[in-house]
Amino acid sequence: MTALILASGVGSRMGELTADRPKCMTPLPDGETILSRQLRQLQSAGTEKIVITTGAFAGLLREYVHSLGIASEVVFVHNPDFGTTNYIYSMYLAEKELSGDILLLHGDLVFEDAVLDMVLKSKDSAMAVSTLLPLPEKDFKAVIRNGLITSVGTEFFENAAAAQPLYKLTEADRRTWFAQIEKYCGSGETADRCCYAEKAFNDISGKCCVRPADFTGLLCAEVDDKSDLEAVSSELGKLAGRGVYICFSADVIHSGHINMIRRAASLGVLTVGIMTDEAVTEYKHFPLVPYDDRVELFSNITGVAEVVPQRSLSYRENLLELRPDIVVHGDDWRTGFQQPVRDEVISVLSGYGGKLVEFPYSDDKQTFAAERDMRARLALPDYRRGILRKLLDIKGRVTAIEAHSGLTGLIAENTRVYENGNVRQFDAMWISSLCDSASRGKPDIELVDMTARLRTVNEIMEVTTKPIIFDGDTGGLTEHFVYTVRTLERTGVSMIIIEDKTGLKKNSLFGTETEQTQADTEEFCRKLTAGKNALKTDELMICARIESLILEKGMDDAVMRAEAYTAAGADAIMIHSRSSSPEEVLTFARRFRKRDRFTPIVCVPTTYSSVSEEELYSAGVNIVIYANQLMRSAFPAMQHTAESILRTHSAKECESMCMPFGEFIRLIPEE
Ligand code: SPV
Ligand code: MG
């Protein structure tokens, strides 16, 4: 690529500093001059040809550049009218030396490597701007509309960002702009060799595609007078020792991470925050690579000075502790669910003078393929089966929602809400006997056989990755239960819950309205033990569900059974209740916790729905299952629609209750 450096200006505001040399030769603190620094940066960025326009002290400048021994080809173009024209005329004179894409910059611009990198990396033409810096009163601002720069000048304040004269121009845009420059610099009515070249740009900007390259947080400033020089010198002094922070969940590691690390490390001393397993689980999914392994991996990447844990999506805790000068992130978080996290980062940084640097996010095919590959691996039975246990170990609190089909599985898998910069999603899915039966128009009496139930499990598993808790009803005969357990283990289910009832099982929420018999404690214990003995791994959890409160057998009976069942090998205890108040479940949880600190407690707050998860967790509950709400909400919606069609003899009236058809056909994307 060719670079064009505009260095014909007189630099009169620099006082005695430009009395005997051009402004671009102004010394900087580290022994370089503005120009020698630019030339070094351009060379290491791979610039093949550098065109420098000269004005005052042209001979001195040429000699100086030769003395630097620049490896790239250097060409000088002299502007003899430098005292009476603006740089638009120098550009006009230099045009014959240009070809292909070019980099255009002013000879008094001091910038750090990352800014040059950002401008050069742009696929389209680009100009360096800062979207967060306050707008300067007298200097250049760029007007940005729909991601494109439409005008550049000192007079624009609306939709504008502070701008610096550092451009990448594609060949097409260069030709368009320079053709317009010719109109100003040749003879004729419009001739005006004293205006800014950007005036010509503004005439034709609709024909160009110049994108903003956001250098917020990085050094990129023109040196117009001594106070600018002082400010720039002080910034340069801080560059090498700056503390830089970047955070990754890094569940899948790909070249995008390495690229970001390279760029972040070029800004100073880099600390990488790695999200803990709990934090990744909260906002994404259970991580494929455990935290310790991810730390090991990142510690060994060149440029990483230190790796620290980040315990949530929020950066606050780490920023307040580490106080980095710069936080680096891809610019993709400006919109979407991470926007509040970004806002918080900006506000914490501004509290102590830190800066946010955003690099353009590359949504490349490789990242996409890596994500897809990871999802496929997460769904494998051997991986999925153990996740529930790990979640209980890591978080101790799990929420599950009912799914009875691929579609409801996708709702359980993908539904997210964003709360104060954090993400909330379900951890697991419940394959309810009630809903699995109801979706087939059958009562919840163990009528739907295991083959059909397993088909539901498989359908859901095919399109999801989250752990599955299977409602095993009574578990059937012990002789049959051992087979069920093995099948579920092979399939990748994480937990089966069986209830201590015998005979014709009816849904618990009928309570004593129908005849239901609770199983003998010892007999049920034998079933649990047989199930445990049948397992080949310790990943599938067998949970014993106690019906004592449902069948009005009292709290003591429930607690006594819980102890017997855990002694028989149950991995978890579900306590069920049909009371409208959570009190009996909370009492049970507190009593059981006094005797057993670890065995997970499961509950299903259907009739006592006013209780919050937090109340249940603080009493000692670990798994909260929302067992039927999806189906209970879908059914009346479908019924209303059906009634509306019958009533109006048309589908028009129900359109407003329906998802738009265009959206519906795209609901399930093809792989
Ligand atoms: C189910 O969802 O099938 C259950 C929970 O077993 S309950 O319906 O409350 O019995
Ligand atoms: Mg059930």
What does this structure look like?
The protein starts with a strand and ends in a 7-residue tail after the last helix. The chain has 25 helices and 28 strands. It folds into four domains: 2-221, Spore Coat Polysaccharide Biosynthesis Protein SpsA, Chain A; 242-367, HUPs (Rossmann fold), CATH 3.40.50; 380-627, Phosphoenolpyruvate-binding domains (TIM Barrel, Alpha-Beta Barrel), CATH 3.20.20.60; 633-664, no CATH class. The radius of gyration is 34 Å and the shape is elongated. It is 39% helix and 21% strand. The longest helix has 20 residues, at 629-648. The strands form six sheets. Strands 1, 2, 3, 4, 6, 7, 8, 9 and 10 form a nine-stranded mixed sheet that branches. Strands 17-20-21-22-25-26-27-28 form an eight-stranded parallel beta barrel, surrounded by eight helices. α5 (171-185) packs across α6 (197-204). β12, α8 (255-265) and β13 form a beta-alpha-beta unit. By secondary structure, it is of the alpha/beta class. It binds sulfopyruvate and magnesium ion. The site of magnesium ion has 6 residues, from α17. The site of sulfopyruvate has 12 residues, from α17.
In terms of topology, how is this protein built?
Elements: E1 2-7, H1 34-44, E2 49-54, H2 58-67, E3 73-78, H3 87-94, E4 102-106, E5 109-111, H4 113-121, E6 125-130, E7 141-145, E8 148-153, E9 160-169, H5 171-185, H6 197-204, E10 210-214, E11 220-222, H7 226-239, E12 243-248, H8 255-265, E13 269-275, H9 277-283, H10 291-299, E14 304-310, H11 316-322, E15 326-330, H12 339-352, E16 355-359, H13 365-378, H14 381-384, H15 387-394, E17 398-402, H16 406-414, E18 416-419, E19 422-425, E20 428-431, H17 433-438, H18 450-463, E21 468-471, H19 478-491, E22 495-499, E23 501-502, E24 517-518, H20 521-534, E25 541-546, H21 555-567, E26 572-575, H22 583-595, E27 601-603, H23 613-619, E28 623-626, H24 629-648, H25 661-664
Parallel strand pairs: 1-2, 1-4, 2-3, 6-10, 12-13, 12-15, 13-14, 15-16, 17-20, 17-28, 20-21, 21-22, 22-25, 25-26, 26-27, 27-28
Antiparallel strand pairs: 4-9, 5-11, 6-9, 7-8, 7-9, 18-19, 23-24
Helix pairs in contact: 3-5, 5-6, 16-18, 19-20, 20-21, 21-22
Bound molecules: sulfopyruvate (SPV) and magnesium ion.
